[in-house]
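Case 242 in the screening queue. Each case pairs one protein sequence with one candidate compound; here the compound is 2-phosphoglycolic acid. For every case the pipeline is the same: read the inputs, emit a complex structure as tokens, and attach any notable structural observations.

Predict complex for case 242.
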Amino acid sequence: MKVIIVKNYEELCQKGFEIMSELITKKPDCTLGLATGGTPVGLYKKMVEANKAGKLDFSKVSSYNLDEYVGIDYNHPESYHKFMRRNLFDHVNIDLAKTHVPDGGAKDSKKAIDEYNEMLSKATIDMQLLGIGSDGHIGFDEPGTPFDSVTHIVDLEESTIKDNARFFDNDLNKVPRKAMTMGLKNIMDAKSVLLLASGANKIDAIYNTVRGDISTDCPASILQNHPNCTIIVDEAAAAKLQ
Ligand code: PGA
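Case 242 output:
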């Protein structure tokens, strides 16, 4: 596990951008595992700018997203489908047919999960981008998720519901209670992992991920076993590491 500590959010996005764009430049037909949430927004902005400047080509890139809410419409502005369109896909030359987000709105969620796992089993993710929850979750794999899990439906933790209320008018009642997420095994199967963490509310999650025991109490701690994992942390989130 390689830990890079940067000054602030701007530097975090810049460093993350450099690592991801280097992969896309070296391997134009790479497969990315993509994440949502507040943290990757600045990184996606840099990708859009580079694409518009003709410096980064997405035409051959494929992607698989980590997760999606269950119980809100696909077209809800806070669905992760919409998030990806708004923050990245609609602004770069990616082929939408090569992008994949779990179908949280599916009538038959078991079938949707099986299909996603089937797709993932045939794909090789070159780089999986991750944020981290204040409870140490990655994707929506909350504490207690088995390390051998694949895509499944989860009940979100109260802490996650509170963390995400900011995207739903700060109204806890509007935050979906369930999500569909890649499992920890799917994440560990990626050839490389890039985790970004910013802000003081991630201090404990980052400490437990980097220095803690490998335990399902902190799902991200499994990344200590990944052969090619880079964690970029700003000074606020790294406070207990220093
Ligand atoms: P955030 O979420 O980027 O909005 O902090 C991260 C996560 O929950 O994985």
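Case 242 observations:
- The helical segments are 9-26, 41-52, 80-87, 109-122, 158-164, 184-188, 203-210.
- The pocket of 2-phosphoglycolic acid is lined by residues 37-39, 131-133 (CB under 6 Å).
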